[in-house]
Amino acid sequence: MTRVVVLMYHIVAEPLSTSEARYCCAPQRFEAQMRHLRECGARLLSLEELADAFDARSPWPEAGIVVTFDDGFADTFTNALPVLARYRIPATMFAVVDRAGANNDWMSNRGFPQRALMSAGQLREMQAAGIAIGSHTRTHPRLPELGSAAKRDEIHGSKVRLEEIIGRSVAAFAYPYGLFDSDSRLAVENAGYRVACSTRAGFNGQDADRYLLRRVEIYGQDSLWQFRQKLKFGANDVSTFYPVRYYAGRIASRLGL
Q: Contact, 167 vs 125, CB < 8 A?
């Protein structure tokens, strides 16, 4: 069975409010998770390696783990990059390119704390350190609510601008809020991205849609045990009894119940 897990983080910092706690992974907790990935013997992949497998340039991995970050928070640059370098973990940072050097207005306008986003210089520095930069659109809109021309501008325009900033091709895209429609998916493919990430949980196999890859979200309150469970089951919400329900469901499916 092919089981590639793509992990999704947002902010690597202490939460500034209860409203954003879900999206904030404390630095010491993040380091423990990355240490576990390095020490558990898992195959750590980049999204570009996954794209190579889709293109049959390399064998499809039997198992693997991919690390991604959404939005491009400056806190993530400060707190996550040194850890990724220390444990030699490949990753992709999805940046909202028109907000580079500004703030997360799509969140602060809804009552979340305002946080700084990485500058163009920091994006280049992260790229130079071996972390891939992907696109999260120009302004973080809800793509299904836009007309076709506006969607293409957000999707293709962000790719062009990011490539100007970092000086290399941008291969990966992530849908803001995890929202997409058939027009958005087609625009991503036509823009020349090699893969794109959704926010739907689950594993990715060779038959997955490369422009709707599943991701498992890591919440700020996740313990290391919950983190390991998420890797094992490819699920966002795990609890003490989740493994029992999971295996019971698989047995019932095999028995045709």
A: no
Cα–Cα separations (whole angstroms), residue 250 to 130, 181, 186, 254 = 39, 30, 34, 6
Do the beta carbons of residue 84 and residue 25 sit within 8 Å? no
Single out the residue of 38, 11, 36 nearest to residue 26, CA to CA: 11
CA distance 13 to 225: 20
User: Domain of 201?
Assistant: 3-255
189-228: pLDDT as tens digits? 999 999 999 999 999 999 999 999 999 999 999 999 999 9
The pTM of this model reads: 0.92
Q: How many other CB atoms are there within 10 angstroms of residue 15's CB atom?
A: 17
**The total number of structural domains that make up the chain:** 1
**CATH code for position 31:** 3.20.20.370
